[in-house]
Amino acid sequence: MSALSDLSMPSSNLSEPVSDVLLRIEELSLHYGKNQPPVLQIGNLAIDRGQTVGISGPSGSGKSSLLYLISGLLKPSHGKIIWNGTDITTLGEGETDRWRRKSIGFVFQDFHLIDEVTPLDNVLIPASFIGWRINDATRKRAHELLDQVGVPLARKSTSDLSRGEQQRVAIARALLFDPPVILADEPTASLDDAASKTATETLFSLAGSNRTIITVSHDQDVIDRCGRVLRFDKGALIDDSANIKEKAELA
Amino acid sequence: MNPFPIVMASLKRHWIMNILFVLLIAVAVAIGVGLTAQERALRQGSAQAADKFDILIAAPGSQTEIVMNSIFLQHSAINLLDGPYWGKLFDDPRVEIAAPLAFGDSWKGHSIVGSTPQFVTYLSGGLASGHVFETIEQAVVGAAVPLAIGDEFEPSHGHGPEEVLDHHHGAELHVVGKMQPTGTPWDSAIIVAVEQVWDLHALPTGHHEPAGDEHDHDGSEAHEDHEDHEHEEANTHDDGDHDHATDHDEDAHDHAHEHDGDHHVTRIGPPFDLDELPGVPAIVVRPKSVAAAYTIRSDYRTDHSTAFFPAEVLVEMYRLLGNAGSVMRAMALGSQALVVAAILAAILALMQLYRKQFAVLRALGAPRSYVFSAIWSYVSLLVITGAICGLGLGWMVAQSVSRIFTAETGMAMQASLGSSELMLAGGFVIIGLILATLPAFLLYRRPVVSALRGS
């Protein structure tokens, strides 16, 4: 099976809009024990296609848990997570894996690249999940993505890249299957200011009508770039607002 | 799916540890393989060594000692079978070949064995060069003895560490023939007429030899040759021809006669005169038939003699060897189990370092089976590589040990990789592949989110 032929989804395809609402969360709660208070509790929440959403809040407020829940890595205790009409909490593990591979691109704080392979091979790693051989189209796309994020193809060793370049390779890796959603978990937290600015530029340059970016961040520059900001505290959504700058622009 | 990018990365990342894993596995497999191959080589070599020794007849005593003395030429003091008990074998119609074996002397660590010309021909299956001894001053050497036809040497008393270098008998012997390689300890032996050994040790020589009479016209060829030699040696001994009649050292000849003083040994080989036969450590008998073998063995199991098939003793030795081998194999298996356990423990620890990497792969869309197959393939590659290296290492060690053993004993031992070694390594691999599922399964089941949250 070729790497890109796996992109058709049996249960949900976020690239084919059912409505403007891409993600709908209904009566969601997450508990880590029967008698424990909820780690996260959200009544109803909808995110539209193409939005850039920043999630902020103090440590332990449930930001990362929300990211893991909406990516299908965590199952909620209660509630529904409906992506483009499909409740992913009802999918089996294999279906969730396939759905995530096609629909979600993950960017992590510590990049999690494999130092022992080249930047190009790092970008191609997700292709190895679905096929023995990597076809020319996938390889060409990996080349284009590295070019797009500004990492020279001549760089043979991943460990020789700067941290900013490593994060941009991680962003290219997240984009290999052209997912409609990018989930980023503190994407600039381990970068210096200059690298952070470049990585933020790269990340938000991907946004558009067909791509939604949801990022957890403490970095105000990142939050400022988001069109919508969700603020959490003690597992509860305490504020859901358009960005102040965006509000100002709208005004 | 193709987990090999991750497998290769894992191999590169901890390459020193991975090399150590492979070496540990290789040594564990090599111990087992080497033991098995060596044991088989020893069995084959000893069986080959005993091939020409159908029945051994000796004075009552340890059969193992008699076998070690007669077949493997590992000499020790054993009782002598008196002449009258073995002399009649030469007239026994059931016997095809009977040959006395007399030990006691050596040359530079090579045993000198006294026997008959017929035995030399029988043992060697025809000489590689030269001819069998025809006088008591002549010798035939085994293929591994560093003496050539025409060489002369002086026997010393004793063997190996007991060899008394400065205690020469004074006899100078001449090499007249070289045996073909037999792949037995006899390749390192020097065979002389049994009468030579008796004569050197001042024993009766098996023949009535008239004192001082060098012209006993009994019609035997050996005697005639010797007689001719007596007449010719003064003029011809230095002409380079290694025929016994011309390759004779008169000084040594005279010296040898210091022992018997008043008579000259002119006849060698059967027929012997029964009343002139001294005792010998063992007689090799080749019977004419299987039935004859059993009746001879039965007839010579008396109060004065013992008779047995060396194969029986070897089977008993193999049983003991097998028992020792079983213990050693069990120890080898134990060490293999320890190695596997140590490697598994190390890999489980290593997997803790990898768990976040695999959690990230899961977040990127890798199915659990990808994680499982990546870890399983990684451990399996180590096990398979180690087992293959172990096979080679075990074979090399067994070869080296065989070479040393062959050099020391003359017994041809050819260690080779057979089905049992392949099965042993294969069994190790199968167990390794099964055990490799353990770390794979543990990481396969590891919750992704807790690994992602861990630093």
From TrEMBL, chain B:
It holds the Pfam family FtsX. Keywords: Cell membrane, Membrane, Transmembrane, Transmembrane helix. It is found in: Cell membrane. Residues 206-265 have a biased composition (Basic and acidic residues). The chain crosses the membrane at residues 333-354, 375-398, 422-444. The keyword Ribonucleoprotein does not apply. Residues 334-446 form the ABC3 transporter permease C-terminal domain. Residues 204-270 are annotated as: Disordered. Its main location: membrane. It is a multi-pass membrane protein. This is ABC transporter permease. It comes from Thalassospira povalilytica.
